[in-house]
Design brief:
By secondary structure, the protein is α/β, with parallel strands linked by helices. The chain contains 29 helices and 24 strands. It folds into 4 domains: about 250 residues, TIM Barrel; about 250 residues, Alpha-Beta Barrel (TIM Barrel); about 70 residues, Orthogonal Bundle (Methyltransferase, Methionine Synthase (B12-binding Domains), Chain A, domain 1), CATH 1.10.1240; about 120 residues, Cobalamin-binding domain (Rossmann fold), CATH 3.40.50.
Length: about 775
């Protein structure tokens, strides 16, 4: 739609959605061109029709969307097998904790769009160009909870196979399928050739139809017009390859005019779609990482549970979530692959604390979480706000438990731990455990929950109370797995309760359970004796290929000091994102160092490490932002203390940032701002939709040497080019860096920029380079 609107004379910076009301005939003609080219589905001109993007217009969301659907209905009137897809794009701002928009606010925005569109007559809901899986979840829920129409959803992936916020294809599929979408896929991003690898991954994991709407290659800006470097024939050839692999729905995104759709329709004519094969992966995910059960033993960390932990109880009562975060990080570092989160105490608000704990932990570690509570309201609230596909701990064989828990599992697509106990308690035999497991599994199926989303816990009793029952637990493992496609989890430490030398019993029983087929022990990964058992088992069971991890762990053991100096503490705190501790430690350092020394010697080295980890994809956007915010907390504390004591305040080089005129997207710019500020630069942020005149005025007033310009839409790149020309003319020595989804390095240099920044880490490198050059 955007490409055709540009050709129809859409003014730079004008909201395309307003044309639904001001020039409906233009939109009608575009729909007709695509229908005549062979399109079966027309997409409404509503990509950005949400209350935030329309707030400065004269129209409401409902008015704009109703007009758009009306035009699409007129265009398809009298035509057979033609459908109208309500187009829902990103809101345009990051959700908390990465941004300021709450999950519930995002849900309400999407609900307003969807209600308006369906009421007007749309018969498909298309959620597209998403880069944040959390935002996608809000949109899917808004669609599924309000209407029963088919829901198609696509995300945009970068060359590295991940979205802007770090989601990979396996995670996307697990979350989207779990939430019940009808079709998933990829759109925008890249050209069809560059998307082949991403498509392969989607087909590998997806059990539902896959769709692709690629760009017509990469954009090029020639004579004030945007062109794309792939012609319709080449586009169709690549799409045909995807169809032969199993993709069943195709279209086009940026640059794909009706000529592309006609060529595509001809290329696919007579080709029968491949049968979609049901996959049976058992997965739990965060927003950026998927854990597959069954490939090898997985470790579920048990330490965030107040039972028997005095210090954790105190921390929860004191709202000290930094303690919880430290526990999460220590378990991640010691080998846990999933973290159990239990915050149940009688004297706190468990639901509120669970939501806070999940949000905080997900901002610092990339591991999936297991939500552990006996309170159904807590489980429901936590499953809703969780970013990814969680494990719910737990359900059991009691009818009341299944009736309460299974609707949550079905709605949010979670895994669930199923305990083999019922109204008669924990059984003493393996046969009875199988019977209860069967009851749970069959009941789950009646809710539409597949076997692969169930983890059975056969429950171990203490050897001191009933020695014979200890072996019955182990016997139940192969018994259950031989009948059902489920994985087994087990907390093994209970076996030794009341006996001496518990460590010996725990390690021995863990080894026995693994030999019987245990898939995921719920254990303490910081306990080296238990980890020794798991690592050695993986070698002997041929799970640790070529013994790589075993050799890495034990091949060159060197004793390390656990004593940290205060400056190491501050670096560690920033890297790990411990905001509360950052303030205390930085103020303590002021007793020994001046502010500039703290920033240069401790804070910036920590941020450099975080940046390197981000570049290597060891961490992702949530962790990057968390560390930057932690550094900012320390910086603000130092600044405030320095003002009070009349000490020298840090004054960094100034950088001006702005999103150009006509562009109302500033997510990337805001992230760059946050990171640059933490390196000591003084940022002059003019915001979004900023005129060239305002930018020039600010450069002159603030004596700026480095400007950062952002543009997300092809229609606003012309404004960026015009701004650069005027800045270069008025300020010959000025340096300009640019960034945005529609830009490439060649494109950036062609419009006169000095630097192209692909992300916030690159912006830091550019700033360091720019301020070292002569004249700056």
């Amino acid at each position: 739609m955007g490409t055709m609107l540009q050709k129809s004379g859409l003014k730079t910076g004008e909201l395309p959605e307003i044309l639904n009301i001001s020039e409906p005939e233009v939109i009608y003609d575009i729909h007709k061109e695509y229908l005549n080219a062979g399109a079966n589905i027309v997409t409404t001109n509503t990509f950005g029709a949400n209350r935030l993007k329309l707030k400065n217009s004269s129209y409401t969301t409902e008015e704009v969307i109703a007009a758009a659907v009306k035009i699409a209905r007129q265009a398809t009137e009298g035509l057979k097998e033609k459908y109208i897809a309500l187009d829902i794009g990103p809101i345009g701002t990051l959700l908390s904790p990465l941004g300021t928009l709450s999950f519930n606010e995002a849900y309400d925005i999407f609900k307003e769009q969807i209600v308006s569109g369906v009421k007007a007559g749309a018969n498909i809901i298309l959620i597209e160009t998403m880069t944040d899986i959390y935002e996608l979840k809000a949109a899917i829920l808004a669609a599924k909870e309000n209407y029963a129409l088919p829901v198609f959803c696509t995300m945009s992936f970068q060359n590295n196979g991940r979205t802007f916020t770090g989601t990979d294809t396996a995670t996307f599929v697990a979350v989207a399928e779990g939430l019940g979408v009808d079709v998933l896929g990829v759109n925008c991003s890249l050209g069809p050739k560059e998307l082949q690898a991403t498509v392969d991954e989607l087909l590998k994991y997806s059990s539902i139809p896959v769709m692709v709407q690629a760009n017509a290659g990469l954009p090029k800006y020639i004579n004030n017009t945007t062109y794309y470097d792939i012609d319709p024939e080449e586009y169709s050839r690549e799409i045909r390859i995807m169809a032969e692999k199993g993709v069943v729905i195709f279209g086009g995104c940026c640059g794909t005019t009706p000529e592309y759709i006609k060529s595509l329709s001809n290329a696919l004519n007579g080709l029968n779609p491949l049968k979609i094969i049901k996959k049976h992966f058992t997965t739990a995910t965060s927003s950026s990482k998927t854990v597959f059960f069954g490939e090898e033993v997985k470790i579920i960390g048990e330490r965030i549970n107040p039972t028997g932990k005095k210090r954790l109880k105190e921390a929860l009562r004191e709202n000290n979530l930094d303690y919880v975060i430290r526990e999460a990080i220590s378990q991640q570092d010691s080998g846990s692959e999933i973290l159990d989160i239990n915050v149940g105490l009688p004297d706190i608000n468990e639901k509120e604390m669970m939501i806070r704990a999940i949000t905080e932990v997900q901002s610092v570690v990339s591991l999936p979480l297991q939500i552990d509570s006996s309170n159904i309201d807590v489980l429901n609230a936590a499953a809703r706000i969780y970013n990814g596909k969680p494990i719910i701990n737990s359900v059991n064989g009691k009818k009341e438990s299944m009736e309460k828990v299974f609707p949550i599992i079905k709605k949010y697509g979670c895994l669930v731990v199923a305990l083999t106990l019922d109204e008669d308690g924990i059984p003493t035999t393996s046969a009875k455990r199988l019977e209860i497991a069967s009851t749970i599994i069959e009941s789950a199926k009646s809710y539409g929950i597949p076997e692969e989303n169930i983890l059975i816990d056969p429950l171990v009793l203490t050897a001191s109370a009933d020695q014979a029952a200890v072996m019955e637990t182990l016997k139940a493992i192969p018994l259950i797995k031989s009948k059902y496609n489920v994985k087994i989890v087990l907390g093994t430490s209970n076996v030794s309760f009341g006996l001496p030398n518990r460590k010996l019993l725990n390690t021995t029983y863990l080894a026995m359970a693994l030999a019987y087929g245990l898939d995921a022990p719920i254990t303490d990964s910081t306990n080296e004796a238990l980890m020794d058992v798991i690592r050695s088992f993986k070698v002997l069971a041929n799970q640790d290929k070529d013994s790589r991890n075993y050799i890495h762990t034990y091949g060159n053991i060197v004793a390390e000091s656990t004593v940290l100096s205060s400056n190491d503490d501050l670096k560690d705190i920033i890297i790990k994102g411990l905001k509360d501790e950052a303030k205390k430690v930085s103020l303590k350092l002021l007793e020994q160092y001046n502010p500039i020394e703290i920033v240069n010697e401790f804070m910036i080295p920590a941020l450099d490490i975080v940046g390197e980890k981000y570049e290597k994809q060891e961490i992702f956007l949530p962790q990057l932002i968390r560390s930057a915010e932690t550094s900012k907390t320390a910086f603000e504390a130092i600044k405030e203390k320095s003002i009070t004591e009349n000490r020298e305040i840090i004054a960094g080089d100034k950088i001006l940032l702005a999103t150009v005129k006509g562009d109302i997207h500033d997510i990337g710019k805001n992230i760059v701002k946050l990171i640059l500020e933490n390196y000591g630069y003084k940022i002059i942020d003019l915001g979004k939709d900023v005129s060239t005149e305002k930018i020039v005025e600010a450069v002159h007033k603030e004596n700026i040497d480095l400007v950062g310009l952002s543009a997300l839409m092809t229609t606003t790149v012309k404004n960026m080019e015009d701004t650069i020309k005027i800045l270069k003319n008025d300020f010959p020595n000025i340096k300009i860096m640019v960034g945005g989804a529609v830009l490439t390095p060649d494109y950036a240099y062609k419009i006169g920029a000095d630097f192209y920044s692909k992300d916030a880490k690159e912006a830091i490198n550019i700033a360091k380079t720019a301020f070292k050059e002569d004249g700056i």
